[in-house]
Amino acid sequence: MREMRPATAGAAARTPLADRGRRAVLCAGAALAGWAVVARAGTPGERLRDRRALMGTQVDIAAQGADAGLLRAAVDAAFARMGALEAVMSHYAPTSRVAAINLAAGIQPVPVPRELREVLHMAAEVSRRSSGAFDATIGSVGRWHFDPQAPRRPTDAYIREHLAGVDWRQLVLDDRAGTAWLRRRGMRVDLGGIAKLYILQQGLDTLRAQGVRTALVNGGGDVVAMTAPGASAWRVGIRDPRAPAQLLASLELREGFVASSGDYERFFLRDGRRYHHVLDPRTGYPTDGPRGVTLVGRELQAVNGLGAAAMVLGTVQGRELIRGTDGVHGLMASADGGLWVSPGLRERLRPAGTQAG
Questions:
Q1: Element (H, E) at 128
Q2: Among candidates 317, 321, 316, 323, which has minimal Cα distance to 305?
Q3: How confident is the model over 123-166, as pLDDT tens digits?
């Protein structure tokens, strides 16, 4: 599952970029962007692009509309909304609601806001559908840090001792009381694999509520977009999971999500082994199956967490999970270099560098 890391000191500084070109272009850095790294749309009027550090990565917003002042206020509001949700859902922040759930594990339920309950319900649903291949209680085996400059992993003994605490069925949600509770002492929730896409969607929803109708939010390779009637579609580039420095193809995105999971996004090397951030709930260690998965869909509930689950399940079962999810199309790169693309996605892909017709 993805790690949702705290921002470093000074990371909240803004870098607004006014784009007056024919198309607004959004590019994230190769180290952080996953596969979906390029987007552009063709709506006339004002254009604003901004980038800030959130959730351990760089989050970009590209917004277009008739009023520059409205765009600036809307983008600021979207970043504020996403930052507030990160403070609630990060398991690193000692004052977060997730930290409170973990501290009270095995003791008592904890009041949590509606947004956190929604994410926890999404986690439970993808856990159920994947027979536990996705599990938000993976944090029970200890904190992994995948920054190559300061890597950290739990000891093998710690993982063995705490692996039994990885069990999504032991997380109890009570919507009437507004609480969440881990039944066993020592269990921990880690929402790094499912909170980010929800938070990006909340950022887009904030832009919409502020009157913006054409916008794209990109966080570390996860993209959510909307377009006004008559506006050109966004073009999103997809990295080749077998060669992450290269673009494999692009697709047009008017509404919905492009979400990626890969073993190359965040990793470190130790004792000749490569450790990456997608963890297998069955072992407590990084997966050793597919190299990467990218998913395209219109509904957050269908896409969120599915890529990590597919990587845990492996090439064959992972494909079946994607095929069995209505409204979702996918691409999977296997460890042996093979590339599978679902028919629905193959129809939408264009060779990298080509323009829409």
A1: helix 114-129
A2: 321
A3: 999 999 999 999 999 999 988 777 778 888 889 999 999 999 99
